[in-house]
Amino acid sequence: MTHGSARVARQQVTLREQREVLMAVAVAECCGRDPVAWLSSHVFMCPNGHAYFVGECGCPTQAGSCYECGAQVGGSGHLLGAGNSLARELVARVQAEAGVR
Ligand SMILES: [Zn+2]
User: Start and end of every RZ-type domain (predicted)?
Assistant: First the structure.
């Protein structure tokens, strides 16, 4: 019982937590520009759907490993690795919520 409810609660707050993390990083990284706009060009998804950030220009110049699943993320020569993409849906949800305030 305790295990089950803890897991359900965790899933229910994940999106909210994710949004708070995204916004915190965006505010820190956007150098005084619009953090929501920053998100739309700097947040990507690993092949398994985990969000990660690409700093500086937003171009993937370095390959790395997803901290959630270890899949290859980023890329080289400003090209994304296979299976990686911009996290458009996630950013759209964050933008929608940010627009409400
Ligand atoms: Zn992953």
Answer: 13-96
Distance 65 CA to ligand 1 centre (A): 8
Which pairing describes strands 63-65 and 72-76: parallel, antiparallel, or unpaired? antiparallel
Can you give the pTM of this predicted structure? Answer: 0.73
- Calculate how far, in angstroms, residue 63's C-alpha sits from the geometric centre of ligand 1: 13
Other CB atoms closer than 10 Å to residue 59's CB: what's the count? Answer: 16
Ligand 1 mean position, distance from CA 45 (Å): 8
pLDDT tens-digit series, residues 10-51: 555 677 888 888 899 899 988 888 998 899 889 999 999 888
What does the block give as tokens for 72? 């290859």
